[in-house]
Amino acid sequence: MDFGYQINPSSAVNLDQVDRRRYDALVRLSPDAATCMGCGSCSATCTSSAWSGMSVRKVLLGLQRGRDAEVNRMLSACMLCGKCTMVCPRGINTRQLILTLCRLDKNGEVVR
Amino acid sequence: MRERFANGFDPFVIPFLIGMAFVLGYCIVAMIRVYFQLPKPDRKRFLVSLVTPRTAWKNIKDIFLNCLIHVKLWKRNKVLGYMHSSIAFGWFMIIVLGHLEVMLFVPERIHLFYYPIFFNYFVAETEQTLPGSLLMFLMDFFLLIILSGIVLAIIKRFASRIVGMRRTTRLSLMDRVGLYSLWAIFPLRLLAESFTAHISGGSFLTIPANWIFRQFLGNDLHALPTWWAYSIALCVFMCVLPFTRYMHIPAEMLLIPMRNAGIKIRHPRKGFALLEVYSCPACGVCIDACPMGVRKANCKDATVYLNRQLRRGNERRIAEISDKCLLCGKCSAVCQVGVEGPELRVAQRERRKYALTPDYGMIDAASLSQHLSDLPFCGPETAPVEGSVLYFAGCMTHLTPAIRRATTSLLDKAGLSWKMMDPDGGLCCGRPLMMAGRSETAQELIKKNVEIIRASGCNTLLLSCPICYKVFKEEYPLQGIRVVHHSVFFQELIAAGKLQVQHEDGLRLVWHDPCELGRGCGIYEQPRQALSAAADLVEAGRHHAESICCGGSLGSLSLGFEQRRPMTQNALKDLTVADPDQIVTGCPLCLATFSRYADRPVHDIAEILDGRS
Amino acid sequence: MVNRQPVISIIGAGIAGLEAARQLSALGYKPVLIEKAPVVGGHVAEWNRLFPDMSPSEDLTGPLRAQTAGVRTLLNTEVASINRLKDEYNLILSDGSSLLCQAVLFATGFHLFDASKKEEYGYGIYDRVITNRDLEAWFNHKDDRRIDHPKAVGFVHCVGSRDVKAGNAQCSKVCCITAIKEAIEIKEEFPDAEVYCFYMDLRLFGKKYEDFYIKAQRDYGIHFIRGRVSEVGEAVDGRVVVKAEDTLNGKPIKVTLDLLVLMAGIVCNPDAQHYAREIGVAVDDDGFLKSRNNVDAITESSRPGVFFAGSCTGAKTVPETLAEARSAALAIHQYLNKPR
Q1: CB–CB contact B595 C165 (8 Å)
Q2: pLDDT class of A5 with cuts at 50, 70, 90
Q3: What's the confidence (pLDDT) of residue B8?
Q4: pLDDT confidence of residue B158
Q5: Which chain A residues are Cβ-neighbours of C243 within 8 angstroms?
Q6: Alpha carbon distance B311, C264 (integer Å)
Q7: Residue B281 and residue B240 share a domain
Q8: What mean pLDDT is predicted for residues B102-131?
């Protein structure tokens, strides 16, 4: 839709253009990733978040909103301590989710 | 005594010779290969250990006790122990006695490989001398022992419960060929020797058998074919041996000296790891031991199947089995040959490729160290002194505030000066990364944590989490600082009279040995001693090295929450066989996991001690 | 009316049981109420005021009690076991007597989730962590040394609800509105206290609920933070430190509180599951009893002659429970008058 003006186009997420291959591959490999309800327990408890802003919730959201750079930055700060797995009310195996994501390239293929 | 054939040869020995040549050649090549796959320092260490009298003697002792007598198996299951040692030791004795006979009666034939094996075919009437009859007797005796073992083996194969195994290994096709040829060897030998016993002589087994057969067999025409069959069975067994689980026989003889030399797994598929894989006799003891086996679907993920898939190179299954394991270490604890299931799996995990590499550059250890040194001490002293305690709660303990509270309270009661390393959360110890196969990345965390610990000035590092404890103890360069688990620390304080604990009569507690603390670090007795000061102790069905993992382990990468539930419930069932009032453990992860499904209170050891001091 | 006076036993004399007994009496039946507690009224009798009208719970339970005074009520009595006979059920009671009845109504209600099971929230460890039940008791009796002029109060929604780890994946339905009600009441008691509600989703579906929310925001200045509390620590002065993520802002937050109220969720009464299994009545995978269907037969079980009312089939509000009790009474009436 053309409003005749634009407000900083880069900050709006255009879902039509988001590349969700990595997210789709993740959900295929660990289906419980799709059940996140965004409660933020993982972010609040995260050992690494104080330094990196790491948050499994944001990783999952970021993947679905095309924020790949941010997602990768967060993922690389994870220490795999497992606290997020402990607190997740949906019982998502977040450690597996993170390890799976770290194995996917930007096309959603498992690196070999 | 007389030799029946002047040339000392008959074509029926050819199959045996072929098999022998093949298996010897194969094993020698394989041994050389394994040796050269070791990293250079390991090779040197191995050679040195072979000529060091102490290790050399230990090698001989271990090979004799483990490969032939199967001492470890005896301790675990007497029937299985008898079955294995009867076959292994009996066979060994028959070979030794065969050589003795040759040396005694026809020393000029000792260079003929097959002579000791087929002695009774080539040499006659040896039982008429005293040493001859004694040897003949021993030969029959050990043959009988072996045959009794074979009978047990057949029973085990078709009804494993009778010999005390709930489950036994599903055999591959090659294993079946090997198994049936092994089963055939000794009955055939008995038949062959019996058929020739009236010519060559025999003892209490072969002579009566010979008499019976002669009642209805008119001539000796069947004797030679039976010797042929015996030789062929030996040939088949030896030719398939490298491709079956029986490869464990030669492999273990190399594994034992290498392990005694202190060699560890350095490569997931080569050298020592390869040797461990081939040393697996596929006995299946690990199937029953595995805590995942509660769900039948997980039985195929036991270490015995990991070894099989590693031999086959089935990458999909290797990855699946490696990722699923809880790394509780129970398979290693019960393994007869000492295959290190968890270490093998972690090695496979380390092999994995990642698109993203962790980077902890943003963590400023210097400011964390500063923050920690600024933190005031609790207790009598204001500055670090000899005996100041640094308490690292660790990630998981932050989710179990009762542990943290009881631990700090006990430190106060003991009048110690202490501070907490991570009051608002700290860095991870690195062990979860190592378990996931990312030890190189873990080193980065280790470096940062060491800097912080050193900055505190304390010389005791207290851990309430066994996962942390293990890695701090084993991987951290912390010379001059004592790393101690709180269960041990408090036991010492109680023993030294610095903590007074009231005994509550009638309260029955059961101690759950956490995997990382018990099998991981060998700490079994101190927590029990500490708890005995507070209440009466009962034991779980399985305890010490056989304790069952709570199912919450960080070791497993792929087990989901619901899949772990039956494991936890099974562990709880075993913990409560003596109907204790409370369950006590020393690991925040075990505590959180058990609390979920337990029908009675679950506490950390610190809570129990704090509540009664 | 049927020839013989049929016996209807109602297990549980909470508001569902009482209301059903009242309706059945009005229809001319003589129901029997079986209550394991020494008093009738159930959970609601322990509550102080009810949303959305803020009416005292006594206004509901008082008249209910009075109008069922004539009903045969067995207090301090538990059902030891139930046997299914042909067209009838035989209840063995804890006093050793037995009761043969033509219809059984489960009004067994719910259990409040045991908040100490979520150890990370520190209930039973920290003095300043209480539950919704503790707070209602304080509203009633005003004696709880844990509540002493708090300056900062937090409410944690969904404790043991929507939580697979706690064994309850389902929503407890009433905690959101209860938390807002209690937050307002705290604010009325301690006007200068800061009050925070930590929620995952605010589910304010009922009549007037949204008005409550607006009132809480506008008139009472209650802070709503969208984020589930992950852990509760202790500050040096003994106050509790709550950690959560402010998910709307995407930043972790931390707040030090004098009082933390855990909104313990609703789980099925384990007794009800036990009885149900005895007579082959289906239990749903959420642990609650399974209705014949969840659209037009909520009060009917999979067995003829067994009926449900109230929160034995899932979390219910008070008006829903009362409506179901009436509906169950009618269903029983129809069942007993069906030509056989």
Answers
A1: no
A2: low
A3: 86
A4: 85
A5: 44-45
A6: 53
A7: no
A8: 86
Tell whether C4 is within 8 A of chain B (Cβ).
Answer: no
Closest partner residue to B402 among C125, C167, C231, by Cβ?
Answer: C125
Helices (H), B106-165: 119-122, 130-158
Which pLDDT belongs to residue B2?
Answer: 81
**Structural tokens at position B506:** 């009638």
Looking at residue B48, what is its pLDDT? 95
* Residue B386 main-chain phi, psi, to 5 deg: -60, 120
Beta bridge partners of C307: C105, C300
Q: Which amino acid appears at position B14 of this protein?
A: I
The two tokens of residue B380 are 């009598």
* Distance from the B493 Cα atom to the nearest Cα atom in chain A, whole angstroms: 30
**Per the CB < 8 Å rule, is A40 touching C244?**
yes
Which alpha helices (DSSP H) does chain C contain, by range? 15-26, 42-46, 58-67, 132-141, 175-189, 209-218, 270-278, 318-337
Nearest chain C alpha carbon to B565: C165
Query: Both C138 and C253 in a single domain?
Result: yes
Q: Cα–Cα distance between B56 and A22 in angstroms, integer?
A: 56
The CATH number assigned to the domain holding C123 equals: 3.50.50.60
Q: Are residues B311 and B336 in the same domain?
A: yes
The number of domains in chain C is 2
Peptide bond into C52 cis (omega under 30): yes
Cβ contact (<8 Å) for B401 and C165?
no
- Given a contact cutoff of 8 angstroms between Cβ atoms, the answer to whether B99 and B106 are in contact is no
Tell me which amino acid residue B325 is: C
Looking at the complex, report in whole angstroms how far the Cα of residue B424 sits from the nearest Cα belonging to chain C: 9
**Is pLDDT of A49 > 80?**
yes
Q: Complex ipTM, two decimals?
A: 0.90
Which residue of B360, B363, B557 is in closest CB contact with A99? B557
pLDDT, one tens digit per residue, over B526-585 is 999 999 999 999 999 999 999 999 999 999 999 999 999 999 999 999 999 999 999 999
pLDDT of residue B272: 95
Assessment of whether the complete model's pTM goes beyond 0.80:
yes
Q: Are residues B204 and B269 located together in one domain of the fold?
A: no
Containing A84, the helix (H) or strand (E) segment is helix A83-87
- Say how far apart CA B165 and CA C233 lie, in whole Å: 48
Q: Which domain holds residue B331?
A: 262-349
In a shared domain, residues C26 and C103: yes
The token pair at C329 is 């009474």
The amino acid present at B452, given as its one-letter code, is: I
Cβ neighbour number for residue C336 with a 10 Å cutoff:
17
* Site of tokens 């688990």: B485
Q: Beta B123-124 vs B582-585: how paired, if at all? A: unpaired
Partner-chain contact A102 B355, CB within 8 Å: yes
Chain A residues near residue B559 by CB distance under 8 angstroms: 93
The DSSP secondary structure of C173-225, one letter per residue, reads SSHHHHHHHHHHHHHHHSTT-EEEEEES-----STTHHHHHHHHHHTT--EEE
Contact flag A40-C227 (C-beta cutoff 8 Å)? yes
The range of the structural domain enclosing residue C65 comes to: 8-109+269-336
Tell me how far CA of residue C48 lies from CA of B53, B529, C44, C58, C196, in angstroms.
83, 50, 8, 8, 21
Q: B517-520: which pairs have CB atoms within 8 A and are 24 or more residues apart?
A: B517/B466, B517/B469, B517/B470, B517/B485, B517/B487, B517/B586, B517/B587, B518/B544, B518/B545, B518/B547, B519/B328, B519/B329, B519/B330, B519/B332, B519/B333, B519/B545, B519/B547, B520/B329, B520/B466, B520/B470
Antiparallel, parallel or unpaired: β B460-463 and B389-392: parallel
Residues of chain C with pLDDT under 50: 1-2
Q: Which long-range contacts (CB under 8 A, 24 or more apart) does B24-28 make?
A: B26/B241, B26/B242, B27/B242, B27/B250
Cβ neighbours, 10 Å, residue B437:
22
Comparing CA positions, the residue from C217, C172, C202 lying closest to residue C311 is C172
CA distance A36 to C56: 39
β-bridge mates for residue C205, sequence order:
none
